[in-house]
């Protein structure tokens, strides 16, 4: 299977929920929640894609070539590439149910592992969304990051115990889900978390804790105070707040505020190896990619996920060759023009 065949297959299988557009930018699916779109006018999704397109990369091929090492270390482990699959839940209500939650988790967890990276997995109103991912995570020796909704702390800690059972290398909480309407509609409301509540969660386990859905320097400092290992600068794919800014646009001020005290992931509209490069140059340690991984799983299962990972990895490597970067830490602000 090649990538074009994967897309063709996915387009047929995902209709009408995801159109598998030539550019995955939130225009065709705007306002479609449940579904794959951004909230309301869809701008919070589209602005991420548009911002990344506006960032330019400086070309320089006059240097002594020592090859390119695309690997990074996180959670005390080494990964071949600095990007991961973002957590996505709701294969039936956001997509058309053509693959189950367990099948999606299996494809994305095993496919990314095969290609040398890892996946975050999702959660939702039905308990099984989180639970269905755990067997696949156990099978890969815990090399994944289950992500739980901001449930009340006693319920969240119950879920953390299940995550510990499969030896997950970290867990995340998408605190921005406080704004998700489908949880409220399903009678399972979630709410914002105080620093003390987040601290209780990070202290409840030895597993590193990642706070997902931070969009300001102040928010990042609060996550740091709560004892988080890392944050994901994310607007939940533009699904929780209409007219939120581009995630990569707020990234530099967040990095400046927290320095190297916390790991920074970013997601939202990252669609190519060049985009991964730009996000790292803007201050991210690593990147998450969401919707395109669902397309890869629908189009080709675990094989499709591995193929997509290698495609983005190859593009990143090519960008590093053209910019004189022999390792990920060479990718910095001097390499781009904003
Ligand atoms: C259909 C759908 C379901 C999602 N489910 C979750 C989830 O369960 N947990 C979570 O933390 N984020 C969830 N997200 C947000 C993604 O993890 C990610 O932040 C977002 O898709 C941005 O990346 P993208 O533009 O590459 O898709 C979901 C996004 C979509 C589109």
In short:
It contains eleven helices and twelve strands.
Structural commentary:
With 338 residues, the protein is of the alpha/beta class. It has one domain (3-17, 29-56, 79-337): Alpha-Beta Barrel (TIM Barrel), CATH 3.20.20.70. The protein is 41% helix and 13% strand. The protein is built from eleven helices and twelve strands. The longest helix has 33 residues, at 291-323. 55% of the residues are buried. Bound molecules: flavin mononucleotide. The site of flavin mononucleotide has 24 residues, from loops.
Work out the helicity level: 40-55%
Describe the global form.
globular
Topology as H/E string?
A: HHEEEEHEHEHEHHEHEHEHEHE
The largest beta-sheet arranges its strands as 4-11-10-9-8-7-6-5
Number of helices: 11
Q: Any key phrases for this structure?
A:
338 residues; alpha/beta; TIM Barrel; 8-stranded parallel beta sheet; 11 helices; 41% helix; 13% strand; binds flavin mononucleotide
Topology (SSEs and partners):
Layout: H1 3-14, H2 43-54, E1 56-57, E2 72-74, E3 77-79, E4 83-85, H3 101-114, E5 119-121, H4 128-139, E6 144-148, H5 153-165, E7 171-174, H6 181-185, H7 195-203, E8 209-214, H8 217-225, E9 230-233, H9 247-258, E10 263-267, H10 273-281, E11 286-289, H11 291-323, E12 336-337
Parallel strand pairs: 4-11, 5-6, 6-7, 7-8, 8-9, 9-10, 10-11
Antiparallel strand pairs: 1-12, 2-3
Helix pairs in contact: 1-11, 3-4, 3-11, 8-9, 10-11
This protein binds flavin mononucleotide.
Flavin mononucleotide is lined by residues 36, 86-90, 94, 122-124, 147, 174, 212, 234, 236-237, 239, 267-270, 289-291.
